Amino acid sequence: MYQQLPADLKEAECAYTLFVVATFWLTEALPLSVTALLPSLMLPMFGIMPSKKVASAYFKDFHLLLIGVICLATSIEKWNLHKRIALKMVMMVGVNPAWLTLGFMSSTAFLSMWLSNTSTAAMVMPIAEAVAQQIINAEAEVEATQMTYFNGSTNHGLEIDESVNGHEINERKEKTKPVPGYNNDTGKISSKVELEKTSGMGTKYRTKKGHMTCKLMCLCIAYSSTIGGLTTITGTSTNLIFAEYFNTRYPDCRCLNFGSWFTFSFPAALIILLLSWIWLQWFFLGFNFKETFKCGKTKIVQQKACAEVIKQEYQKLGPIRYQEIVTLVLFIIMALLWFSRDPGFVPGWSALFSEYPGFATDSTVALLIGLLFFLIPAKRLTETTPTGEIVAFDYSPLITWKEFQSFMPWDIAILVGGGFALADGCEESGLSKWIGNKLSPLGSLPIWLIILISSLMVTSLTEVASNPATITVVLPILSPLAEAIHVNPLYILIPSTLCTSFAFLLPVANPPNAIVFSYGHLKVIDMVKAGLGVNIVGVAVVMLGICTWIVPMFDLYTYPSWAPAMSNETMP
To answer: What is the separation of C-alpha 471 from the centre of its chain, rounded to a whole number of angstroms?
Structure first.
């Protein structure tokens, strides 16, 4: 039976609950989603919250948004629209090695804005691997040609054997296919996951440059799939967790939506992507500006081989189909409705429902479009009558409920619910206020230093713990800290949320890293060295953004009226 407890005892018991859950999340002694159920057991047992109130935290507006997004992702992957977009973007940038790498990074980042990081990496990596293998094969053919010429023989032409590599790529694609789901970055890849080696991994690199090219391709795919997820609220689970937590804790703010998030995060993600491209290009191959930006020169045989592989892969898709067109149209409509709901600089369509402010959210749009995927027919189902006539008796929708279920990440839904339950428990017990009071002496430090410390702390923690677990643990700590030192909570929470995704150092840091590592081109030390540079770039750009273009968007220098129990004071 729920009974009131002394305040200090409730704080201690809630702190113990938080400690137990955080320990299990960090050590993964239990599956993350199973650990997320512990608050529903411990909070009522300790008398902190009644069971009904805890249970209500496990399904919120976030889950409705997730359902709508999964409907879109299911249709995109079912009809291969994602592959068509990726190949088309790579074909547009050309076959110069540096530009080819940028093309892969751009297409991967774009897809990751709307699909899970894991699915994006698993889809693009086999294409990149095929291109890398063709570069190696082309170099071998050049050597063979030169040797034949030197020996006085005649070579009537170069023939690049693509059938064998095509078979190897298909085999590798099957072996690296992730478990269907929206975002598998709920946990770090367990050490028990076997990084399988396929026949193509035993390839002997004829030159160091060939080996470096393969490493470069792998890390470009892994890192850009993570960077792209920063751009939208739905791009990765950490963004969704933060948005739901923030809107729940500060319901009067109404300043954080799809449009506002994209406005401040897109420039940051774009800068990080470009600087990461330059860093990785220089780290593995050296960055020759004259070679990179040359125009009108004859393509070498390796570049022709790359262009041929990409062209053939695109041709295999055939002409764009009706199902792809409908999916693309619904995708564009969803994005436009998200952006135009409440853009900030002009009234959005939500103003049409001024009598019910805040009722229509991004999840409203996601559900509306998501339902259409079950209603719009994809193809007619026909049967042959006894007279031999073919008649239509039913139709198949763009996606079925069974297909949706196979993609729906129920583990993410439970994990996020557990985080919300913990946050509610911290607030109900007074633990959040207690933590804020204890951290208030940090107010004597410069605000930029507090942001830097919290960003570095989160970046380090997320290398060894799952991204959602990390953000779920730190949000109830950083929010009271911001309130205690009279700082706009967004000033600290936005950089920390973005830095939660910077898991670039280890193969087990997130699923995209593990997928590219499984191709056998990389060593752990390669990922650590290259990832450290990308981590530094990411934190530096986030710090730059939070001190420049993000400030006027949310008036970060002023303590807001929507934050609790503080007066509107301007920071010195």
So the answer is: 14
Region for residue 196 given its phi and psi (left: phi exceeds 0; alpha: psi -120 to 50; beta: otherwise) = beta
Residue whose structure tokens are 């948004």 = 65
Note the residue count of the chain.
Answer: 572
What's the rounded Cα separation, in Å, for the pair 108 and 276?
A: 14
Scanning the structure block, which residue is given the tokens 């004071």? 569
Predicted structure pTM score: 0.70
List the helix and strand counts (H, then E) for the chain: 25, 2
pLDDT in tens, 361-406: 878 888 999 999 999 998 876 666 677 666 666 678 999 999 999 8
207 Ramachandran zone, left/alpha/beta (phi>0; psi -120 to 50): beta
pLDDT tens profile 111-133: 888 877 877 887 788 778 877 77
Q: Is 161 helix (H, G, I), strand (E, B) or coil?
A: coil
Q: DSSP assignment of 85-146, as one string? A: HHHHHHHHH-S-HHHHHHHHHHHHHHHHTTS-HHHHHHHHHHHHHHHHHHHHHHHHHHHHHH
Please report which helix (H) or strand (E) contains residue 262, including its range.
Answer: helix 258-284
CA 344 to chain centre: 25
Per the CB < 8 A criterion, the answer to whether 135 and 209 are in contact is: no
